Amino acid sequence: MSQLRILLGERETAVNQHGIIRRRVSMNPTRTLFSRMNGLASRRLLNDGNAIPLVGFGVYNTRPGKETEQAVLWALDAGYRHIDTATIYENEKSVGDALKKTNVPRDEIFVTTKLWDTSQGYQEAKAAFEKSITALGLDYIDLYLVHSPSPGKKLRLESWKALEEIQKSGKVKSIGVSNYGIHHLKELLEVCTVKPAVNQIEISPYLARTEIEKFCKEHGILLEAFSPLTMGEKLKDDRLVAIAKKYNKTTAQILIRWSIQHGYVPLPKSVHKERIESNAQVFDFEISEEDMKQLDKFDEYFVTEWDPTRYD
Ligand SMILES: NC(=O)c1ccc[n+]([C@@H]2O[C@H](COP(=O)([O-])OP(=O)(O)OC[C@H]3O[C@@H](n4cnc5c(N)ncnc54)[C@H](OP(=O)(O)O)[C@@H]3O)[C@@H](O)[C@H]2O)c1
C-alpha cells in the first residue's frame, strides 16, 4: 500500500519508489481531489522533461466510428488520460471526435499516434504527420512514434530527422520509437540530435525483454508495454489465476500492475465498458516482491503478432 499512500499524500509533486510523479493538474479543488484519487492521471517523467500518464488506453483492433469514439469516451470517464492510436489503426479521426466531445481538458490528455511503415522517409514522414494531426483535429500531439524499424536503416533514420524537425515546430511534444531492438536504438543514438523519449514494445510477464529493458534504462528511454494483456491469450493461465486470487483481482489487473511496478507504461485495450473500468482499478494494491519475481519467471518469449525488434 506504500504507493497508494504516496499518491494520495503528496502536495504539488512527488516521486515514489516506482518513479511515478504526481502533479496537481488543476487549481480547481474538485478536479484536484479527483485527480489525487485517480492513479491513472499520475505521470512518469520523460527524458525530454515532458510527463506521460502511467497507463495508456490502446485502440488497436477498435473499429473506426462509434466503437472507437465510445471506447475512448468510456476510458476518459474511467480516468484514463492517455490514448494510444496509430495511423495504421485507421481510427485517428474517431479518437479526435471523442476528444472533441469530452469535458476533460485537452492539456490533461496525452495523445500518441504513430508513423506507419509505408510512410517512412523524410518527406513522407512529414506529410504523414500532417495527415495524422489533421485526422485527430488537434493543435499538437503529445507523442509521435516511428511505428517500427521494418523499412530499413535509410528510411528509419530519415524518418527520425523529420520527427526531430516536427518536434522543433511545436506540433509534437515528444518523439519516440516503437518495436526497436537494441541494434536499432544504437544506430539511432549514434546520429540523432534528440534521443527517443520512449520505445513502445510488446512486454508482459510472458515476454520479459530483459536486455532491451536494461539498455533503455541505461539510456533514459521509457518503455511502453503494448499488448500488456497478451491480447487476452494468457488471462486464464492457472499460475496467473492463482496470483490474481491471492489479491482478489482479475488476471488483467495483475498484468497491468506488473507492468506499472516494472516502471513501464502499459497500454491495455478493450471495447467493453466494464473491462475498461476494471482494467483501471490497479491503484489500490501492490504486488509483493516475491510475486513479482514469480511473474518474472513466466517469460517464454510469447509474441502475440510481430516482433520487429529482431529485424535488420
Ligand atoms: N506499437 C505496436 O506495434 C503495437 C502493437 C500492438 C498493440 N499496440 C498498442 O497496445 C495496445 C494494447 O495491445 P493489444 O490491443 O494488442 O492487446 P491487449 O491490450 O494486450 O489485449 C486486448 C485484448 O484483451 C481483451 N481484454 C481487455 N481487457 C480484458 C479483461 N479485463 N478481461 C478479459 N479480456 C480483456 C480485449 O477484448 P475486448 O476489447 O473485447 O474487451 C482484447 O481482445 C493496442 O491497442 C495499441 O494501442 C501497439
Describe this structure in words.
With about 300 residues, the protein is an alpha/beta fold. It has a domain at about 45-235 and about 265-285: TIM Barrel. About 40% of the residues lie in helices and about 15% in strands. It has twelve helices and twelve strands. The protein has helices at about 1-10, 30-35, 65-80, 90-100, 120-135, 155-170, 180-190, 210-220, 240-245, 250-260, 275-280, 290-295, and strands at about 15, 20-25, 45, 50-55, 55-60, 80-85, 110-115, 140-145, 170-180, 200, 220-225, 265. The strands form two sheets. The protein has an eight-stranded parallel sheet with strand order 5-6-7-8-9-10-11-12. A hairpin with a 4-residue loop joins strand 1 and strand 2 (about 20-25). Helix 3 (about 65-80) crosses helix 4, helix 4 (about 90-100) runs parallel beside helix 5 and helix 5 (about 120-135) crosses helix 6 (about 155-170). The radius of gyration is 18 Å and the shape is globular. The chain starts with a helix and ends in a 16-residue tail after the last helix. Residues about 1-10 and about 25-35 have low confidence and may be disordered. The chain binds NADP nicotinamide-adenine-dinucleotide phosphate. NADP nicotinamide-adenine-dinucleotide phosphate (NAP) binds near residues 61, 267 and 269. NADP nicotinamide-adenine-dinucleotide phosphate binds near residues 60, 61, 84, 178 and 231. InterPro entries: AKR, Aldo/ket_reductase_CS, NAD(P)_OxRdtase_dom_sf, NADP_OxRdtase_dom. This is Glyoxal reductase. Belongs to the aldo/keto reductase family. One of its GO terms (molecular function) is aldose reductase (NADPH) activity. Keywords: Oxidoreductase.
